């Protein structure tokens, strides 16, 4: 079996690496020459634990190759996975131009039966558009080649992507032909052997499943953030409330942590795109509109707390920031709450000193030299008026608080991820401000 992965970003690289890891011959394609040249030199464009080693190992075995030549990569391959980006259009709907371009390339260059699988997150009906685009190209060539399309949305989490791909909670396959279903069942066999389920359904349901999953997760976050904000007002403690509701098996304790809003490349755009799909079909997705509105508000919550603490004047205040990526274990800053918070701080005249274990290079693209960057978390605290924790990296969880206290101008911590214990912080003499617990008397 030979497979081609088109789009060598987070999803494409992980998919390609993991399939080659189980012995399959994989060719990864991208239009970004620089990225492919670097990959061929063993330079991995993203931070994802375990990915670099896996890529190098399989390149050395000759099972994993990288190219910009899509024509060559499409010819003679059995399955093509479309893993290109689907960024939001101006109106919030998913921009499908990259997906359709790849579908056209498939039609232009395929020379025998091929299964074309859409792994990118795409709105309901896209796989049919993929099918039409391939057909049109085959017609232009005046040739008839059998092919199938399938939808196979990806559920990996950045930061744990390899583990998620190798040991998935489930693999969702939308297939309209038995041949396509059998091919995908076969391909995924190494990952389903230990009881990880493959759920086969129609293509439209598979496309919908991905959006419903991300929208449900975003809903959990906005729900708990809304409750957290109310807890602060009424004098309740969100940590107690979270434990109280999470122990109900119907609710569960996962993914109900309050914070500074969801970010990343998926939740914001997928919630928006599903609202747009609803609109196209004259259905008003009211819950998701509220989810989006709460998230927008939540991204400003920590900044407002900092502003209030300093009596509305941040001019020449120095704020130390720990964590810039949208979540731990990744350098991805797409839609990260840190973007909004840092920009608001700068606009208010504050100085920002930032530390992140892996996202500093990425941050430089966003903030340039308007903030200062540190390679040591404690160094960022020197002469700062407070510390704000924006990402819950493990290394921030039990810092040396004596050093934190000594280095800060005054012991003030804004905890955007509720990683510290309120009573301990107060006992140590910190002014401690977090989410969903009113700690300021
Ligand atoms: P990405 O931006 O990291 O990578 C996309 C890659 O596709 C880029 O390298 C780009 O150069 C390449 N590309 C664009 N057009 C191309 C073309 N015509 N031919 C070849 N390559 C092309 O994106 P990503 O984060 O990997 O996401 C890809 C898709 O998977 C999106 O639809 C996303 O919603 C979905 N998804 C992402 C995640 C995630 O955690 N990142 C998880 C699940 C699903």
From TrEMBL:
Pathway: Nucleotide-sugar biosynthesis; UDP-alpha-D-glucuronate biosynthesis; UDP-alpha-D-glucuronate from UDP-alpha-D-glucose: step 1/1
Class in the EC hierarchy, top level: oxidoreductase
E.C. designation(s): 1.1.1.22
UniProt entry tagged with the keyword Nucleotide-binding: no
Domain UDP-glucose/GDP-mannose dehydrogenase C-terminal: from-to ranges: 320-422
Catalytic activity reported: UDP-alpha-D-glucose + 2 NAD(+) + H2O = UDP-alpha-D-glucuronate + 2 NADH + 3 H(+)
Domain of life assignment: Bacteria
Gene3D superfamilies linked: Cytochrome c1, transmembrane anchor, C-terminal (1.20.5.100), NAD(P)-binding Rossmann-like Domain (3.40.50.720)
The entry's keywords: NAD, Oxidoreductase
Family assignment from sequence similarity: Belongs to the UDP-glucose/GDP-mannose dehydrogenase family.
Protein name (Swiss-Prot/TrEMBL): UDP-glucose 6-dehydrogenase
Organism: Litoribaculum gwangyangense
